[in-house]
Design a protein that fits this description.
Blueprint (H helix, E strand, L loop, with lengths): L2 H18 L3 H6 L1 E8 L7 E2 L1 H14 L4 E10 L2 E11 L13 E13 L2 E9 L1 H8 L6
Parallel strand pairs: 1-6
Antiparallel strand pairs: 1-2, 3-4, 4-5, 5-6
Amino acid sequence: MTATAGKNLDLMLAAFRAVEAGDLDAAQDMLAEDFIANLPGSDEPRRGRAIWREGAQAMLEAFPDLKIDVQDIFGADDKITVLLRFRGTHLGTFQQFAPTGRTVDFRSIEVYRVENDTIAEEWVAPDVIGLMRQISPTADR
């Protein structure tokens, strides 16, 4: 592994730790000013740190005890790929779903691009269907 790849991995791990700790200011400071978010269902990339913060804040409000387990991470050049497992308790509204008090467990595959020692771009593919099945009022419990 190159020194740059190792530095980029450390940056990503620090960002995940900051989000898990609820320190969105620290995590946001690790993003490039012109951060680009490539989100499922969006025809065009969304831009800016505020877009990222909205998503992270929504997750922490809905799942205040959110745990982020980095199951695999690797990097080459300016890219980092991560397999994540998210777990938490549904204690706040998430999208259209009122709090259920249920524990959720879902995964995401994510790719990040690092530029000038900041996270410049993301492509995320969370298992949204699996998450929604767990918090749906009709979920088999």
